[in-house]
Amino acid sequence: MSTSQRFGSDAVECAEAVLVEQYPRLVRLAYLTLPDSLGRHTRVLLAHKAVQRALPRTGTPAGPAPAEDGTDEPDRHLALLRSRVLRAALAPAGPAGTTWARPIRPPVPPFVWGLRLWPPAGGIDEAAPTLGGAPAPVRAAFVLLRLDDLAPDETVGLLGRAGAADPATAVRDALALPADEELLRALRRPEFDASVVSARPTDLLRRRRTARACWAALATLALTLTALSVHGSRPDPDVRPAAGPAASGALDPARLRRVPPGAWSDTARVDFTAWPARGGRTGDRGLLARALGTWAAPGTTPLSTTPGTTGEPPAGPPQLLYAGELDGRAVVVLRDGDRIVRYGESATGSRGGRTLDVTRTDDAGVTTAAALTLFRAPDGASARYLLAPWIAAATARDLLRTDDTGEALAVAADGVTAPAAVPPAGASCTSWPVLELTSSTRIVEKHSFVLTDLGALSPVHLTYTPLPDGPAAPARQPREATGPEARAAWARQACRLGELRQGGYWAVNVWDFAAARLPDGAGRAVWSCTRASGWAGPGDVIVRLRLEAGPPRDVARARSTAACGRFGRHLLAGHRWRSPAGRWYLLAAGSRQVTAITATGAVRAGTAERTLAAPWPGPDGAVSLTGTLAGGGTVTALDGAGGGRD
């Protein structure tokens, strides 16, 4: 089929047969290409829309097509369908394929009324977020290369016909992504079918109220128009708009979902969905009704939400996690999908002092669903936490002291801890209290991890990635911040965690990516990248240089980036440094796949190593850094230059 031909009836029928046969794979391609920021319901509908609208009509131009020599007719039709699906999935994206340039219109067809759709638990949606940090063309290339087994040149051609700005770069970046065999096997299993969805109703009572309000508004409009037709342009002052129904009673405490106490030990999904309802007031209908009512209509109650979180009422009955009384405060904790809500009031139930906090918990797991902050002391010096049912022991220790073995933290039968010190909120930082939790051997053996309180409802998981063994060795993975190396690295920069307060983060990882001896006998320096990952997907990073003495020095930073994460493992950074002898140097370092570094501008130097130390001749000037990668390609410095100053 050449580019000048049009689709005949036979060609359309053949394309339809191919579409029906390959429908799940095409939906998977569209679903994983669309950004997860759209939400699961919208992504499902847009993915099905992209595939269903990919079928051409009789008489429409065939468009660009692959070469026909040696290619079967079904394969040519499949290539055309793939390109049309990709064009639809990539069309709303900006030039880089990473930001949405215009609002998403209702996906019609298909459309649903009164239902929310998403891939079922244990399905493709559990694996899709692993690609969330990559641009849309890279995600599409990953699916085509790793799941559909296309050759790189075929993938470049498909992306080009679909309108991707730089398909060759997208394919190269996709090939550089870690090919996790477990993930690939999981995505190929039948249950990882993006065309299989779960459905639940939206808030039926709210829909009923909306319908009534619409009818009332129509009736009011009809009365107003009638009055205008009788009295001219001046409305009758006695005509009043009909009042809509009150927003009370939308949520019933009797319908709250409650999980059996032992569910966590008999499920493969160890997260907030396995938390039982705990606390001494889980049967207090009045307290639960006030919590649900305040959530549905906060009124004057202070509402706190983490970035990227909505405080809107739930679409269905939420899950009850806790209802109890702590130090004169009644606290209720509820879960609605990927959100956790904490309601607080005085123990007497008076209206004064009510609070409502909402946070995201997307894809929380064993560590990130291990604790929630129930109560903070009025002076802000301590807090009490609700621990997950799979936590066997809790220890409070100081992150600044590498030799601190910690002190056991008492935990009540309902999972509530005794008061524990929290990190200081002011400028002084003489200690940084953290929680070291140990998981039950019923789910994992010898597993301890560290959480820190950054002022949000959900504590933040701290991890550490050690220096690489070399370019030929496998990439190191983040590990728990409990070993000697991790403690030493975190002790040097724990106080900088205060900069991340209330930022909507779920994990912070320190990655030591390079080390080198400094000029003029100044000792050894370690280059590290600290990545704070947000619940929404992107993260904020800071590259630091740790010298043998003194605090770490900031080298470069970036916000809302994939750098220093699973899909941003190639890193290069530079720093202008003054040695103890008073001489200025350009220091640069790259991650394990960097095989050479070139500096241009105020400093002209190069090295066939991962680290560079070159004299800086003048007092000023800009420097550009470029690193050569082992697999081909280049990487530039995170801040675009080696301009950081001592």
List the helices and strands and how they pair.
Layout: H1 9-21, H2 23-33, H3 40-52, H4 73-90, E1 115-118, H5 124-127, H6 136-147, H7 152-161, H8 167-176, H9 181-188, E2 198-201, H10 204-231, H11 285-296, E3 303-305, E4 319-326, E5 329-336, E6 339-346, E7 355-360, E8 371-376, E9 382-387, E10 391-398, E11 407-408, E12 420-421, E13 433-439, E14 448-452, E15 460-465, E16 479-480, H12 484-491, E17 505-517, E18 524-534, E19 539-546, E20 553-561, E21 572-578, E22 584-590, E23 594-601, E24 605-607, E25 611-615, E26 623-629, E27 634-636
Parallel strand pairs: 3-7, 15-17
Antiparallel strand pairs: 1-2, 4-5, 5-6, 6-7, 8-9, 9-12, 10-11, 10-13, 13-14, 14-15, 15-16, 17-18, 18-19, 19-20, 21-22, 22-25, 23-24, 23-26, 26-27
Q: How would you explain this protein's 3D organization?
A:
The protein has 646 residues and is of the alpha+beta class. Strands 10, 11, 13, 14, 15, 16, 17, 18, 19 and 20 form a ten-stranded mixed sheet that branches. A hairpin with a 5-residue loop joins β8 and β9. α2 packs across α3, α3 crosses α4 and α7 packs across α8. The C terminus is likely disordered.
